[in-house]
Amino acid sequence: MAAASGGSAQDYLPDSRDLVSLADAAAGCRGCDLYRDAEQTVFGAGPASARMLLVGEQPGDREDRAGEPFVGPAGRLLDKALSAAAIDRGQVYLTNAVKHFKFTRASGSKRRIHKTPSRTEVVACRPWLFAELQAIEPEVVVLLGATAAKALLGTDFRLTEHRGEVLRAPEADYAVVTTPHPSSVLRGPAERRAAGFGDLVHDLGTAAGLLVSTGRRR
């Protein structure tokens, strides 16, 4: 379906909530202008039967080039945290609130530097996230970082006040746990990285514990 750039991903959603159909449609999304500079759309990845769904902010440089979520440095740290929390990455669905890499470049440099997406860009891309949630029907959603948290829980949400708590999104049938994005652990002061990693593992463990307590099966 064609639509003018600057609208919303809603203009590109297919009728189907099959993940393959959604990913194919997202590849042609022009709902905001981020597609102009990014290499490609980076859609979510993981099994359609996943009981846990993790949401980050946006793909980074490595993800944009590979076309897969969480394959760069932050993704490797997340892999370690998932392992430490006894969560099999192959059993969770990983995605981002924004599906295109937003970046800037320092003068005279070819290096692409991450730039936080605007609220307008997050809202424009949000229909893809909602469609993924409908397709997966997870029991637990882990929101990695403030952008992901605000995308689902509203602009007034404060991650620092509710980190690690078990929450509910409006009109949702799944539990929500919020935690800092792995990239914030990597960028933090060296003396805080061990504690930041521990917080991430703890919060992922909280999310995993909810799966055990619900005992729900497909």
UniProtKB/TrEMBL annotation:
Which InterPro entries does this one have? UDG_Type-4/5 (IPR051536), Ura-DNA_glyco_family4 (IPR005273), Uracil-DNA_glycosylase-like (IPR005122), Uracil-DNA_glycosylase-like_sf (IPR036895)
**A Pfam entry, by short name:** UDG
Q: What is this protein called?
A: Type-4 uracil-DNA glycosylase
Query: Annotated Gene Ontology MF terms?
Result: 4 iron, 4 sulfur cluster binding; deaminated base DNA N-glycosylase activity; metal ion binding
- Which UniProt keyword terms apply here? 4Fe-4S, DNA damage, DNA repair, Hydrolase, Iron, Iron-sulfur, Metal-binding
Which SUPFAM superfamilies does this chain map to? Uracil-DNA glycosylase-like (SSF52141)
Q: Which family does it belong to?
A: Belongs to the uracil-DNA glycosylase (UDG) superfamily. Type 4 (UDGa) family.
Q: Uracil-DNA glycosylase-like domain: from which residue to which, for each copy?
A: 43-205
Q: Which GO terms describe its biological process?
A: DNA repair
